[in-house]
């Protein structure tokens, strides 16, 4: 998978589509000036060989600190070992020193490199919410995969309906395959399902690792602007410091954003690139904001992406 990802980044560099690193920024934006609701998406690198060594206490402390510091309403995690999910689930759902979070889980593998996290080897996606998921609304939609093209996971879209600052929201989470040829059909399926939720009148928040740059035509199915035909805006699309070469520098938004995979996190990378996203259905949200955190050597080879928005209606 990582070899496929390196090939993907090299191709982006060749095409001139990799986003600039931009000026140095503080790790934590001034949260007091950011709108609500708040979101996080994070590929936590649970089972890959290059991931940080397992330290249950350090992992839990880092994750809980990140969630609480941002006071996140929704948290989307990818590459999650079952033992990582239960560790966070059991703490966040019962604690008395902070807001409690409900969660849903979906497995993409039944056997993985998760042995250090417990005997249950399942691996997949987890979504946490500062609210209770409505009973019977958890769905796991399989995404198209071509096993002959190197697919090693059963890629899914994990969704659930949950109140966010008092409003019911469809919270969806995914991890798109990095292998060439897999991304298009998978993103199309994600767009189809989430578009149906939006058509039913639900605000939709879609988080995940898409293994695609914002300018990739595959993401046309999601974006509602700059060549897109979807129903989403993205939290980090209006930071002009990270507008790429294809952006109109005088525009107020562009398919762009701060890199979430950078050489200082993933040492096998040479070029920074944005591949992690928080998409918000454009009809329901406004004033979107996004920021990528610094690398966390106790958690992942990705950067955590924070997002925020205000309700449109």
From TrEMBL:
Signal peptide: 1-26
Alphabetized GO MF terms: endonuclease activity; exonuclease activity
Transmembrane portions of the chain: none
Keyword Ubl conjugation applies: no
The entry's keywords: Endonuclease, Exonuclease, Hydrolase, Nuclease, Signal
Gene3D superfamilies, per database record: Endonuclease/exonuclease/phosphatase
Protein name as it appears in the record: Endonuclease/exonuclease/phosphatase family metal-dependent hydrolase
UniProt source species: Nonomuraea muscovyensis
The organism's taxonomic lineage, starting at the top: Bacteria, Bacillati, Actinomycetota, Actinomycetes, Streptosporangiales
